[in-house]
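Local shape tokens

___
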Amino acid sequence: MVKLDERNREQYEKYIIDILEKRDIKKFRDSYLELHPTDRVDLFTMLNGEKRNLVYEYLSPAEFADIFQGLDVENQKEIVLEIKESYASEMFNNMYADDVADFLSEVVDSKAENILTSMDKEEAEEVKELLSYQPETAGSIMTKEFISLSSTCRATDVINLLRNEGPDAETIYYLYVVNSGGQLVGVVSLRDLIIAPPSEFVENIMSSRVISVSVNEDQEDVAKLIKKYDFLAAPVVTDNNILVGIVTVDDVMDVLEDEATEDFGEFTASRGATDVNISSFSAAKKRSPWIIMLMFFGLITAGVIGQFEETLEEIVLLAVFIPLLMDSAGNTGTQSLAVMVRSLATGSFEKKGMFHTIKREFGTGVMLGIICAVVLFIIIPLFYGSFIIAFIVGISLFLTLSIATIIGAVVPVMINKLRLDPAIASGPFITTVNDILGLLIYFSIATALLEYI
């Protein structure tokens, strides 16, 4: 199998496209199927409709299934409209059940039902089972293509079983041992099987201390477990410990990408609008609730400034430093928010504890406040000729940054305690709150020292 590097990618792509144009079936199949599956997908996405139709003609549904699985959902929807129904049915039959379920969950119910009806009954039932689980749970992302064994099998029998059933399984590095009732009782690795005597029973090779996940467990928790134990796959069981599927590491990578995208959307107050494939209208609709809410927060900020109108009229120079104070407070709070959301996501928060983390962030805020205040004590008298203004701005910034780090750290923890995603404590929200507090501190100190300015 060939994996393209950047130097020969363009040349090889041009060569294969040229073969397609000449309609040399044998050369195309030999060259294209020799590529790494990922490179096959990349090259396929470059083709226009005419050349894609040639690919459907030259590749069997089973061969094209590997390409289809690697495409994003939007491309998959386009492809399904291009291929014949019989070709599509055979393609879906040769795909892993979890990949078919992922696709069908993104199409309208009537279309999904038609696809399921056209598939083989056994394959369709597996897909229906996956679709029956709640989204973003272990059951919804697991695959049904795994190998289970009886503890009474011998090592040599298992090796023979792998030769026959291994090509259809998603992974064979872990084999799961079940009793007569289908309950998970052990796990044996391929390595242990290979080095074991051929006549050895599986029950003497397997480990009975199996780490499994429930079908209803959140997909993010499943991903954390697989990452923690460096698993290639984790068995999925029902409440009665019946083995129903496995979650593989490639599924986990997709989960982590989805969760990171979701958290980024929450963090930037643009949840659901980070996909560049959606229309401007859809993006605006998803972003508008946050923007409107933050607009009202902005009115509160304006109200705070209005409350100190007399102070501003007395010393207009104070207005010059409002952007500096607000930007610094917002940026510092957002940094603390990012640190806290990250520590909650990775589990380091639980290890260190709330007191330690908040203490660290507060200490960071104090240090940043001191550094910024010292800089302002030097710069403001130099440019504006006022030591008292430098004192007001410097002390205000010191207090604001110290408090901003606490707010940025505490708010996501409080949200997490409510069993909500801490990322919803978005950057714009934290920024606005810190802006309001920073202005209150700034104008309160300035008003108190007005007679000395």
Remarks:
- The two ends are 77 Å apart (CA to CA).
- Residues 280-452 form a domain with the Tetracycline Repressor; domain 2 fold (CATH 1.10.357.20).
- The chain has a mean pLDDT of 84.
